[in-house]
Amino acid sequence: MTWFDGLTAGTPAFQIAASVNPRIRVVAGPGTGKSFAMKRRVARLLEAGVNPASILPVTFTRVAAEDLHRELVGMNVPGCDNLNGVTLHSLSLKMLLRNHVLQATGRTARPLNDYEVSPLISDLMGTHGGKKAVDRLRRAYEAAWARLQHEQPGYVQSAVDASFAADLRSWLLFHEAMLIGEVIPQLYEYLRSNPGAPERTEFQHILVDEFQDLNKAEQGVVHLLSGVADVTIVGDDD
Question: Nearest CA to 23 among 226, 237, 235, 238?
Answer without folding.
Answer: 226
